[in-house]
Amino acid sequence: MKSRTTTALIGAVAVAALAGCSSTSGAPAADGAFEPQDVRMIVPFSAGGGSDASGRAIASGLETASGATVTVENREGGSGAVGYSHLFAQEGNPNYLLASETTLLSLPLTTEVDYNYESFTPIMKLGDDYTLVVVPADSPFETCTDVVDAAKSDGVVVAVSGAISLDEIVFSLIEQDQDVTFDRVPYESGSEVIAGLLGGTVQVGSLNPGEVLGQLESGDLRALCSLSEERYEYEQIAEVPTAIEQGIDVAFAQWRGFIAPGGISDEARDYWIAAAEEYAASEEYTTYIEENLMQPNAIYGDEFVEYLGQNSADLEAALAE
């Protein structure tokens, strides 16, 4: 699935929307402009994983762009459902945000929840984050084909960070493509998956490059393949072959971004979009994207909503196969 690339520019409207905003006053000012107060950035997974890193980067970037104070809250549980449910309960409150990713779409497709992406106010998609299939340094597996062959004979235990996470999706796609079945152990974050791999609880994991780069560089873990259309251009993982090169026709990206509750005012929505556009033009954004080896495909507002609709349809089709 390929994502459209939109260059983040700050226009006069964005600058005007941010002008005069303060982090100390209550919701709408006397002139109708939104002024944030006690902003909360919910991360629906535990500390240490890719979603946590994303939430903290966005919070810091929005603080710089807007002057508002943004406090990060980890509300893990239910494979992300606890955090999303908390945001859903904040209907109309523009001082709550959530560091979102593909779980926003996969949860409603696979779980009994009271919301879907249309229940919220999408603000910004930061970019796309593919995964690497990784194993401990002493694993007998040398390629992703080795993993598939072992699953056909002896069985393979894989880790997934959330029962309906990107990891679950890509392993399901591999199962469909190769006619195999994996045994799964669910975790609540990428950091827990890494601990499971290093501790020998699981044999194989699927992790975003930014989550696992330290362990790859130290030699504690090895990457067998990337689940992307093409090899990464980032020097650290440029030599990792794609699963497609190894005869496994699977490539699926996780997007990362942030959303607000449903029912907020147009002024509040425009405020956060303007702040997001300013963040995307900053060195902070570039640093986050590059340090986490992501693809910088930023889009906002209505374009983000359109993207979510198409991505949800693609995901539903993939899960139904």
Automatic annotation (TrEMBL):
> Sorted alphabetically, which PROSITE patterns does this protein's record hold?
PROKAR_LIPOPROTEIN
Which CDD domains does the record cross-reference, listed alphabetically? PBP2_Bug_TTT
Give the Pfam families listed for this entry: TctC
Q: Which residues form the signal peptide?
A: 1-29
| Entry's transmembrane regions | none
Q: Which UniProt keywords apply?
A: Signal
Which family does the entry's similarity section mention? Belongs to the UPF0065 (bug) family.
| Protein name per the record | Putative tricarboxylic transport membrane protein
Organism listed in the record: Agrococcus jenensis
